[in-house]
Amino acid sequence: MFDNPFHQQELRPHHFLITGGAGFVGANLVAYLVKYGAGKVRILDNLSTGFIHNIQPFLETDRVEFIEGDIRDLPTCQAACQDIHFVLHQAALGSVPRSIDNPIATNEANITGFLNMLVAAKDNQVKRFVYAASSSTYGDSQRLPKVEEEIGKPLSPYALTKYVNELYADVFHRTYGLDCIGLRYFNIYGPKQSPAGAYAAVIPLFIKAILEGEAPYINGDGEQTRDFTFVENAVQANIKAALAPQKAANQIYNVACGERISINQLFQYLKNFAGTSLEAIHRTPRKGDVRNSLADITKAQKLLNYQPNIKIEQGLEMTFQWFKKTYEQIDQTN
User: Fold this and answer.
1) To bridge 96 with a disulfide, which of 39, 148, 207, 288 should be the other Cys (CB 3.0-4.6 Å)?
2) What is the model's pTM?
């Protein structure tokens, strides 16, 4: 991954903080910044959903610093933002079903934690605050493709918290002059995404099931569609948002491919890569899920020069091969 850089200016003068940096998207951001020579890369993560092994190879360099801490604690956020130019805020408690099961924990991490980070960024005069927003903010809007200016009502506590993030970021810009950019992720997937736990995402769950020869579950009829987005595209959007000219700041952008496939099609791709005839088990649809999702990425293309280079079939194959290699390495050590 990252065969070509997503930036043109030198990164060495810049200091970056990645919250949730031991998690899936965060660890891929760390890898990019280390590869291309950022002056300082500070990682803040409480390791509740992230894993130290995701960032272990990078901790050996003196340009990378790890803080094990929680964004729900303001003093921790203040310390993490000291001497930082750009915050790439990935830390959150994800998953629509998790938010339905535990709305209070979701609110504490995603709203209180987000507010703490905004305050800390403001107090430490951070140049720009780039944060992971979510396509779930579109809620019950039936419009396809989704355009940034038109949203519906949230369908889950998680979606509500991510919408509140956008409102808070706008207020902090208008009130305090903090530069903020929100990136509405559409179903990010790729290497380092964990299949573990009750709230794991569909792609790592499918791959895990296939590699273990077990039938995966599909919620509903499987004809619901998503704009699945390879993680390298999300990394590109973060880097370009952090370094974008001022005219691009204080905006919300869709981060996706502008293409959609059904869950059934997704599973068929993965079956083809594995050469298996395994069949999925269909079960009751999940509460809070939207039926169809597709992004209009015109705004990000124009203002951020965002170009999703890796489309769904290529990204899925890269992800499958990464998981397969990882499983093979585990087998060899056992």
Assistant:
1) 288
2) 0.94
